[in-house]
Every structure is written in structure tokens, then in C-alpha cells.
Design goal:
By secondary structure, the chain is α/β, with parallel strands linked by helices. Helix content is 36%, strand content 14%. The protein has helices at residues 51-58, 79-88, 101-111, 124-135, 153-160, 177-183, 206-215, 239-243, 272-279, 289-299, 302-325, 345-353, 378-399, and strands at residues 66-67, 118-121, 143-147, 164-168, 188-194, 221-225, 248-253, 266-269, 330-331, 337-341, 357-358, 360-361, 370-374. It has a 7-stranded mixed beta sheet with strand order 2-8-7-6-5-3-4, with helices on both faces. A 4-stranded antiparallel beta sheet has the order 9-10-13-12, with helices on one face. A two-stranded parallel ribbon has the order 1-11. β3, α5 (153-160) and β4 (164-168) form a beta-alpha-beta unit. The radius of gyration is 26 Å and the shape is globular. 39% of the residues are buried.
Amino acid sequence: MSSSKSKKKSHKILQVETFPLPFNLSRMTSIWELANPQLRDVTVYEAGKPIEETARELGVDPEGIIKLASNENPLGPSPKAAQAMRAALNNANLYPDGSGFYLCKAIAAKLGLAPENIILGNGSNEALEFLGHAFLDGEREDEVIASEYAFVVYKLIATSFGVRMIEVASPDYQQDLEGMLESVTPRTRLIFIPNPNNPTGTLVSQRKIDSFVSRVPEQVIVVFDEAYFEFLDNPPDTLRFVREGRNVIVLRTFSKIHGLAGLRIGYALARPDVIDVLHRTRQPFNVNSIAQAGALAALEDETHLRETKRVIDEGRAYLQEQFAEMKLLFVRGAANFVMVNVGDGCAVFEKLLRRKIIVRPLKGYGLPEWVRISVGTMEQNKKLIAALNEVLGADVGQLA
């Protein structure tokens, strides 16, 4: 039997040179000492109150909640889209098509453009972020312009990128394109024109758009946000500016009339060199394969689109008629919601919430007396009106 001498293991001690940190961790009192300073001024976007959260708070079945807060399609997604998404789940182990080849091709064919004119986003909100990364520079002291009551995300984008936001006054809740032109300076980079506008629901005419675009300086990019485009009877044609090679970007989404808000899929339309710039800001695989499959099927489901528009047209007319009978001030809208003055938007929101109906208070838009009410099914609309009459009637009784 052989024997061996025991060997001692030797440990080599490494001398690591240390460098002083640029700050004292023990003295750092707030994460804001590390964070980008402009983020202090960003107000976190507050979405419409979820059905599930409301049901938990009230201790009721979620099926009993009526949500008229987020301008969603009350009929749900296209049945063809639902079928396509279920089939797409079989390949969920694979990465999606990063370029969205088939969906871009289908959108292009439908709109008379080329696939090179299109970029997909994780909702059209992500396309807004593309624009920020591509064109905004806080150190250059850039500026962006939008209407006083325009979609709040434009302000969030501007603040996030450290640029100045110029809000143009909105007389009678209409977007003032002439005022926007007068606000342009050499530092202006982007002008946002949501059409129809959220939350007011107002629409800018083709005549005003044509006049505006013809006079915008060449260095300024005009962004037409057309999330509610498909609800319009005679929509303005902004794509012709894209075909003409103007500095115009058009945003659209599958969240609204197509009923795919939960998938987060939208797109931007622009001339090819602009799209090329935006692609350089895009994360790989930013739009998942399930969303692409659902959007592709929804795009071709004309039956679902027509039925949704019919329901919205009838429901919007009903709500506006009822508001008029109730002597409530409201803004006649062109989309799938109505903005109405109820005296105290937050108080009415809370009282309707206790009646299992969710609407959207507009205090965050500087409109504390107003709420935005999405058009639902006719049954939902009638329940909303009954509850609103009850709430406002009780308020009147308390004041008497």
C-alpha cells in the first residue's frame, strides 16, 4: 500500500488597488442623487382604474363592474383576431419576427404605402418614445408644442427627455393650429396634433390641417396622432403628406376600434428615411408574436370594424342627447368617448365607482369639473345615465 506526503495548499493573496467613489454612499440620503434630475418633474401616467382593483375594493364580482374609463372597445377583440392569437400560442417558444414583415406588408397594402413607410411599436405610445430618442435633446434646449388639453403623454415624453413643453391655449376645447404656428421657434423639434383629440374628442378639419402643414418650417416634424381615426365618417387625409415626403409622422393603433388594447400594438407611418432613424431607437423584438398575429387578423375583419363603429355612433349620440336633457355642458366629440362637465369630476367619479361604474376624472388635465366617459354597449350607456342622474340628483338635493 503506497503512502504519500500530505501537501499544504498555498493561497495567493491578491492586492487589489482601490479607487475613491465619486460620492459617499453612507451620506447619500436619496436615490435622486443618482437619478436623472428631470425625472423629478415627471408625473407618472395614471391610467383608467382597472376593473379588478375596483372589484376588490367593493368586494364584488368583476363581471358586475362597468368600465367606461379607457376608451376600450366594448365588443372586445375581433373573433378572427382571437382565433389567430390562440393559434400563435403554439409558437410562443420562438422569438417574434423583429421586423413585423407580414403585418407591415398588410398595413402598407391597406393604406397604399410601402412597408418601408411603417414601424411597429409596443402600442403607439412606444412610437412616441422613438420620437423622443430620435429628435429631442435637452442639452440643445429643444422644444415641443402641443395643445393645452392634448394627450398627457406628450408632456411626459418632453419632460423625460429634458426639453421644454409649450402648451397652446385651446379656446372652446379646440386645438388652435394658428397658435401652434405662432409658437414655433428655431428650437422647435416636434408638434403633436392628436386628431381626434383625447380627452376633448374634438376634430381638426382637413382645411385647417392643409393650411397648417403648408406653413410649418422644414426643420419641424409634425406628428398626427390618429388613435381614433377609424371612428371618423370623413377622416382628414394626413397620409398624403407622407407620400409627398413631408416631415410628417402619423401614429395609429390597434388598441381602440380593433379591440386589442391589452396586446399593446401600434405603428408609425412616415417617409422611409424617417422610419430608418426610428428603427435605430427601437429595441429588438419590441412587438410580440401574439400581438402581431392578432393585429394581422383584426386588420382584415371588416365585419367587426363596422359593428364596432355602429355601436359607438349610436352610443355616442345617445349619451350626448342625455347630457343635453340633463342640462350638462359637454363637448361634441368624434371618437368613442364624450367629455362632460359634472361640477366636480373627482367626486362624481367616486360616487359612480360605488355604483360599480368607472369613468375618467380629468383633474390631471387641468379640467377638475369634467369627466371623460367612454361609449359602451347601449345597456352599459343606459346604466351610466341612470347612475349619473342618481348621483347628480342627490347632489342637487343636498344643496337645496
